[in-house]
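User: My instructor asked us to take a sequence, write out its structure as tokens, and then describe one feature of it. I'm not sure where to start. Here is the sequence I was given:
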Amino acid sequence: MFKIVFVCTGNTCRSPMAAALLTELAARAGLAGSIHVESAGIAAGRQPASAGAQAVMRQAGLNLDKHYSRQLSLAQLQNADLILTMTLAHKQTAASMAPGLAGKIYTLAELAGQAGDVVDPYGGSEVQYRNCARQIQQYLQAAWGKIVTLAGKK
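Assistant: Let's start with the prediction itself. The structure tokens for your sequence are:
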């Protein structure tokens, strides 16, 4: 099983949406049993996914109703095969937590061959959440070939 962890700040918006979108992408490709996806935050408490993230994912046919945020741990980083962060700052934080794992930590944009961060919609309008989900989806589609290749090497 190839394990992917998405990382953002509070684990209520970006990383749970990314995890849901990638899980769906893997299922449609027939790889649901080969790729395990989870998410965590670098400053997370135990909270449900934000209302905006839940609404946008529901509109996409996905469900975050049972998601509760969790704090990123060293064990989670060590057990992951690929760590995808929403921003460069998240990447730097994850790399500082586990210096020996820097080779498997990327920003989502970086893995997609793009520059920049996934914009945080926290506290914003549903349109901002929808735009964030669209940005994540575009990055995932661009990175999909690399993800499949990496998963196939495990």
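For the description part of your assignment, you could build on this observation: The chain has one domain: 2-153. Try explaining in your own words what that tells you about the chain.
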